[in-house]
């Protein structure tokens, strides 16, 4: 087994009933079985889906998945994807979830690739990524999409007002706000969830009608809206995110049914409000 290959037990540990995995379960279960069969089987399953959907990467190249060892020596990962359409992929959970997002939110992934590859073209690959690339990487690895039709709830999230967001307005979840996991490193961490596991929430203002749509239409709307924002916002910084402990999301973890769950200030911190 090569260093970038996963043990089968890693893929077997994905529980598609978990709310953070459930939106991706239809395709994910097929890929999981392929991954348990082997590296070549996983790549074949991914490429079959890529051929069927005709998805493209940041510069319009047809999406495909290749073995990590096929990335040419010295080639920058994002630049290679942009120029060839080929995503170097290891046989592990991290890259499994990364590939999943190319199908769940294809426009967002393409927008991230556009911005990352443009930054590489302009500045090259140095010892540090720079502020914009750091923000794009943070989004790609750890983002949550917080869809919200009520400005008071968005303000509560930005202001670290956990009581309003997660206790007093608990009934608003599913009718005025909701979350989709996007970051593939975050999804990997949630294989074994822990209380302090925190995502970087990107707040998306949605129309009230959003909560009357089915999941497919909601995801398509988020995909288009967020991709447009990523492409049109010049000054991307990490302060555009709001930290959100994933297990605090109402309905996502049994223990948070008790308001005392949120009394843990090591997890639900006061943040910038106290500064």
Gist of the model:
By secondary structure, the protein is α/β, with parallel strands linked by helices. The chain has helices at 8-12, 25-37, 39-53, 77-84, 93-104, 106-123, 131-142, 151-158, 162-168, 184-189, 215-232, and strands spanning 64-67, 86-89, 143-148, 177-181, 198-205, 242-245. Helix 4 links the parallel strand 1 and strand 2.
**Residue share in β-strands:** 5-15%
- Largest beta-sheet details: 4 strands, mixed
Structural class designation: alpha/beta
Distance from first to last alpha carbon: 50 Å
Total number of beta strands: 6
Helical content class: 40-55%
* Continuous helix count: 11
If you compute it from the alpha carbons, what radius of gyration comes out, rounded to the nearest whole angstrom?
Answer: 19 Å
Walk across the major sheet and give the strand order.
4-3-5-6
- Uncertain ranges: none
The SSE order reads: HHHEHEHHHEHHEHEHE
User: Could you report the average pLDDT, rounded to the nearest whole number?
Assistant: 93
Envelope shape: globular
């Amino acid at each position: 087994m090569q260093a970038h290959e996963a043990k089968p037990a890693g893929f077997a540990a994905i529980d598609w009933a978990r709310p953070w995995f459930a939106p991706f379960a239809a395709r994910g279960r097929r890929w999981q079985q392929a991954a348990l069969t082997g590296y070549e089987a996983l790549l074949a399953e991914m490429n079959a889906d890529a051929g069927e959907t005709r998805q493209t990467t940041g510069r319009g190249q047809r999406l495909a998945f290749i073995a990590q060892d096929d990335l040419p020596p010295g080639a920058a990962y994002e630049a290679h994807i942009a120029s060839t359409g080929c995503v170097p992929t290891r046989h592990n959970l991290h890259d499994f979830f990364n590939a999943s997002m190319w199908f769940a939110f294809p426009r967002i992934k393409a927008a991230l690739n556009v911005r990352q590859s443009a930054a590489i073209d302009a500045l090259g690959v140095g010892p540090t990524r720079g502020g914009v690339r750091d923000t794009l990487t943070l989004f790609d690895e750890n983002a949550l999409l917080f869809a919200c039709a009520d400005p008071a709830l968005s303000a509560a999230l930005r202001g670290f007002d956990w009581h309003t967001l997660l206790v007093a307005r608990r009934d608003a979840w599913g009718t005025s706000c909701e979350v989709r996991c996007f970051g593939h490193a975050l999804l990997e961490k949630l294989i074994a969830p822990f209380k302090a596991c925190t995502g970087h929430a990107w707040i998306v203002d949605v129309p009230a009608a959003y909560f009357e749509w089915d999941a497919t239409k909601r995801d398509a709307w988020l995909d288009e809206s967020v991709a447009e924002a990523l492409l049109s916002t010049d000054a991307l910084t990490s302060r555009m995110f709001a930290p959100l402990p994933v297990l605090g999301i109402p309905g996502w973890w049994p223990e948070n049914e008790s308001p005392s769950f949120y009394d843990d200030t090591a997890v639900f911190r006061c943040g910038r409000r106290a500064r």
